[in-house]
């Protein structure tokens, strides 16, 4: 899942080397923390949050086979 997030976000940003995805897993949820360069945050979120919503939709659909709830946090 980390590779999927990095693959989707890296072409969107100016500094693809700064894209970092970390994972925090508990008993009932998996949280992916996406960190990008400060200048690229707007590009990842997009106008009215459209890009962030699309990325989250793909991540949630890809993780639907797990019993745990999946969250994507963009920093």
What does this structure look like?
This protein has one domain: K homology (KH) domain (GMP Synthetase, Chain A, domain 3, 2-Layer Sandwich). 35% of the residues lie in helices and 25% in strands. The protein has a 3-stranded mixed β-sheet. Strand 1 and strand 2 form a beta hairpin.
What labels would you give this structure?
KH_dom-like_a/b, three-stranded mixed beta sheet, RNA binding, 35% helix, 75 residues, globular, single chain, 3 helices, alpha+beta, GMP Synthetase, Chain A, domain 3
Summarize the model shown.
Helices cover 35% and strands 25% of the residues. The chain is α+β, with helices and mostly antiparallel strands.
Find the CATH superfamily. Answer: K homology (KH) domain
Biggest sheet details: 3 strands, mixed
How many discrete domains? 1
Let me know the average pLDDT.
Answer: 94
Strand order of the largest sheet: 1-2-3
Pfam families: KH_KhpA-B
Function: A probable RNA chaperone. Forms a complex with KhpB which binds to cellular RNA and controls its expression. Plays a role in peptidoglycan (PG) homeostasis and cell length regulation.
Keywords: Cell shape, Cell wall biogenesis/degradation, Chaperone, Cytoplasm, RNA-binding
Organism: Sediminibacillus albus
């Amino acid at each position: 899942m980390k590779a999927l997030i990095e693959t989707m976000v890296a072409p969107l940003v100016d500094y693809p080397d700064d894209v970092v995805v970390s994972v925090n897993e508990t008993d009932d949820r998996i949280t992916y923390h996406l960190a990008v360069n400060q200048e690229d945050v707007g590009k990842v979120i997009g106008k009215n949050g459209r890009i962030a919503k699309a990325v989250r939709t793909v991540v949630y659909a890809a993780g639907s086979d797990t019993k745990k709830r999946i969250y994507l946090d963009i920093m």
